[in-house]
Each structure stands twice: as C-alpha cells, then as structure tokens.
Amino acid sequence: MTDKQEDHDHSGVEFRGHPGRRVRADAQRNIDTLLQTAMAVFATSGVDAPVREIAEKAGVGVGTIYRHFPQRSDLIAAVFRREIDACADAAPVLAAQHEPGEALVRWVQRYVDFIAAKRGLAKALHSGDPAFDTLPAYFKKRLEPALKALLMSAASAGEVRPDVSAEELLGAVASLCMHAFTQGPEQARRMASLLVDGLRYGANSPPKYKKAARRKA
Amino acid sequence: MTDKQEDHDHSGVEFRGHPGRRVRADAQRNIDTLLQTAMAVFATSGVDAPVREIAEKAGVGVGTIYRHFPQRSDLIAAVFRREIDACADAAPVLAAQHEPGEALVRWVQRYVDFIAAKRGLAKALHSGDPAFDTLPAYFKKRLEPALKALLMSAASAGEVRPDVSAEELLGAVASLCMHAFTQGPEQARRMASLLVDGLRYGANSPPKYKKAARRKA
DNA sequence: ACCTGAACACCGTTCAAGT
DNA sequence: ACCTGAACACCGTTCAAGT
User: Fold this and answer.
1) Which residue of A has its CA nearest to B175?
2) What is the rounded CA–CA span in Å between residue A179 and residue A190?
3) Is A56 within 7 A of strand D by CB distance?
4) Contacts of A106 (CB under 8 A, 6+ apart)
5) Separation of B50 CA and C9 C1' (Å)
6) Which nucleotide's C1' sits nearest to the alpha carbon of A61?
7) Which residue of A has its CA nearest to B172?
8) Chain A interface, mutation test: which of B48, B73, B119, most A Cβ atoms within 10 Å?
9) Which among A207, B127, B151, B198 could disulfide-bond with A212, CB atoms 3.0 to 4.6 Å apart, if both were Cys?
10) What is the spatial distance, in angstroms and rounded to an integer, between the CA atom of A69 and the C1' atom of C7?
11) Nucleotides of C under 7 A from a protein CB
C-alpha cells in the first residue's frame, strides 16, 4: 500500500482479457452511455428490465452490450460499482461543505437513499452469480474508508461517541434498509437517523453551547 | 373469533373463483404431488427452476400446473405456505416431547433451518408479485402463536426471561438468517442460539438444581 | 476494433383437443 | 372436470456480416 493515489476506476473500465489495452474512443462513449442508460432503466423498471430495452434507449445494438458486458449480470454489477463510487465520492465533498456532525448525518442519509432504492441488491448478492462475487469487497473497500473519515472527525470534534466502527455502522444501516423494504424507504430513513442520534447521545461532549437547533431535514 | 378450531387449510387447497367447491379426487392427488415435487425441486435448484422440469418430475402436463396455479408465483407461494404450516405444526409436537426450555430451543433451530434454506424468500417477498401479498400475514398468523405458546411455558417454568415477545424474537431470528445468507446457515444457527442463550440468561430462576448438562445438539 | 441485428435456445403461459 | 402438449410470445445470448 505505497500508492499515493489509488485508482478506483471511477470512469475508466478495465476489461477481462484486455488488461492494459486502451479502448477506442467511440467504444468508451458507448460504455458511458450504456451505464447511464442502464442506471436510469434499472431505477424505474428494476434490474429485470430486458437487455433490448436498454440497448434501444441507449441507441446501440444488443451486440454492443454483450461485447462490453459478456453477461447481463456484468452490466448490473458495473452499474452498482458506479453508484458505490458516487456514494463514496460524496463523503469528502460533504466534509468540506459542512461541520463534522452535519456531514456525517448527511452522508448517512445519502447512503440510505442509495441502499433503500436498490431492492435488487440483496437479490443480486445472493444469486450466486460470479459477476457479483467481487461486489461486497468493493462495497467495503470504497465505503468503509469514506465513512471512517467522517466518523473520526465527528468523534474528534466531540459530536459523536468514538466507540462505534465504520464497518458495524455500515452493516447496521444496510441491515435496517433491507429489513425496511417491506415498509418503504421512509422507515429506513427514520431508523437510520435514530441510529445516528444514538451516536450523538454518547458523545464525549454534549451539544453544550452550540447552535443545537440546526435540525430540519 | 369464536371458532373453537380454526382451519388452517393444511392439506386442502381452496381456489380462487371456486369457493366451497370440492375438487375431484384425481385433481387433489395431482395437487399434492405437484406441491411435493415443487418443494423438492425448489430446494435443490432454487425457486427459478423451470415449470417444465417440475411438471415432468411430477408426471403431469404443464397445463395441469397452470390449471391449479395460474401463475408460477402462485405455486411458489403455495409451497411456502405448506412449509410455514409444517413449521408451526412442529411446535405442539416438540412441546409434548420435551421440557419447555428444550422444546423452545429445538423449535427455534427448526425455524432457522426453514428460513435459512429459503434464499428465495426475501427475493419473493420484495418482488411485488401479488401472489405473495398475503404471505407475510400468513407467516405471522401461523408462526407467532406457535412460538408464543413455547415461549410462555418456558417463561412460566422460569427457564427464560418473560419480557421478550414472540413477534420480536421471530423478527430478530429471521433478520439474522437473512443477513447470514452470505455466510451460510452455520452462522445463522450460531447467532440464533446465542439469542436464545440470552433469553435463558435473564430468566427468573437460574438453572438451580436442575439437570443442566442436557445440551448436546 | 467495433457495431449490428437476424437467428437460436429456452422459458412462462395459453388453449384447442382429448378423456 | 380435468388433463395434455403443441403453439405463442418473449427474453438472454451468439455470431456472420458489415464499417
């Protein structure tokens, strides 16, 4: 781990069997369009949406999809990775824009919205499809450091208790979201914010003479 | 609720559009065979197994399946209801065969095995398919009283703390099982038994001078 | 290199013909 | 009443033909 700047392949996509090979510009454009279109279609119609529909809306032939994503599940996995990246990347932005406690709260809400919207996630992870094999590791690799940073500065600022790890918080919230599928995303948000309130309750220093009436949502 | 003996339709199947109509003997035999075959196939190949495979193994035409179960999901739901029934019916049997604490432990294991084996359950419940709409209610209606009886007599015997409801225990264990899908059913069993040990720990009267070395599993 | 889309295999569901 | 299975619609995936 001596890399000073780890590449999380946000935009570029590295393909099986073509390691290090540069993709042609038009192909890369197709890939981007495909991922964006697929994300939109999955969001509205679910991950079971027909491949043909995505190809049509993206303006390409079905063959193009299969050239870049050999299996239908590879496309789904790629979209998930994109959304994980977006969620992780939101952390430093929020940290720069808000004070530590508020940044943490907002990020957790963002995380909840991400998970709660993906009713296909649990299905995918337990399908046994090898395309999803690396997804849990990627999920953890990207999201845990993101939350850890927020958690640590909030703890340093005394706004939050310091004895809860990013890993268990990530897992607990995900668990709540999965369980709240039956109830809808409102329930998930409420339970998650209850959890964060719990974090605040056990902080070293209570709100004190801080502007404590800053909650609206 | 003045019925002295509620009918939980264990064996008979009541059909939409034919309320009260008796089914012919050969049809009933087909239904039973179908449910048994489907249960076996789902267990080995998962709930995505082709309808044709089930029809073939049951020795009937596909049309026969669709006559009794208009949608594929109706067959899945029927199999689930059967297994829920079997699990609920195991409670009084265990209660008659073992002392209260042991009966409770054994039933929870049975329940875990039921849930942990059904990786299709979460998928089904969140699919939005109307065939599964009544399943959660049926689940609760049958399983909650079954567990409640075990829990109450174990609590009366002082083997278990009395302040945990059947509903929350049922939910907690199911939650553990769902979450343990990634790890396999072993993890689920361990966490569930930990939970029951927790119930025991807070009992009114500790093991005392009871034959406490009765655990083997 | 990359793209296209007809073609193939497979699966859920229907329904005319049988008993 | 009930059963059968060919037929239909639809979807994932492939690959020969194009650029």
Assistant:
1) A179
2) 13
3) no
4) A94, A98
5) 14
6) C4
7) A179
8) B119
9) A207
10) 20
11) 1-7, 10-16
DSSP, residue by residue, chain B: ---SS----SS--PPTT-TTPPPPHHHHHHHHHHHHHHHHHHHHH-TT--HHHHHHHHTS-HHHHHHH-SSHHHHHHHHHHHHHHHHHHHHHHHHHHS-HHHHHHHHHHHHHHHHHH-THHHHHHTS--GGGTTHHHHHHHHHHHHHHHHHHHHHHTTSS-S---HHHHHHHHHHHHHHGGGT-HHHHHHHHHHHHHHHHHT-SS-STTS-------
Does residue A50 approach strand D to less than 7 Å at its CB? yes
Q: What is d(CA A19, CA A13) in angstroms, rounded to the nearest whole number?
A: 10
From first to last of its 217 residues, chain A has per-residue pLDDT tens of 333 334 444 444 444 334 455 788 899 999 999 999 999 999 999 899 999 999 999 999 999 999 999 999 999 999 999 999 999 999 999 999 999 999 999 999 999 889 877 777 777 777 788 999 899 899 999 999 999 999 999 999 998 888 788 987 887 777 667 765 555 667 677 667 766 777 777 665 544 333 333 333 3
Q: Are B75 and B34 in contact (CB under 8 A)?
A: yes
B179/B159 Cα distance (integer angstroms): 28
CA distance A20 to B39: 48
Tell whether pTM > 0.85: no
Compute the distance between CA of residue A197 and CA of residue A78 in angstroms, rounded to an integer.
34
Please give the single-letter amino acid code of residue B209: Y
Shortest CA gap B126–chain A (Å): 7
| Exposed e or buried b per residue across B182-212, where buried means at least 16 C-beta atoms within 10 angstroms of its C-beta | eeebebbbebbbeebeebbeebeeeeeeeee
* C1' (C13) to CA (A113) span, angstroms: 37
Rama region for A194: left / alpha / beta (φ>0; ψ in -120 to 50; rest)? alpha
A206 touches strand D (CB under 7 A): no
CB A143 within 8 A of CB A84: yes
Helix axes B100-117, B135-156, angle to 10 degrees: 160
Distance CA A91, CA A111 (A): 10
State which residue of chain B sits closest to A183, comparing Cα positions: B126
Q: Which amino acid is at A120?
A: G
Q: In whole angstroms, what is the distance from residue B2 CA to residue A4 CA?
A: 73
Which of A123, A136, A179 lies nearest to residue B123, judging by beta carbons? A123
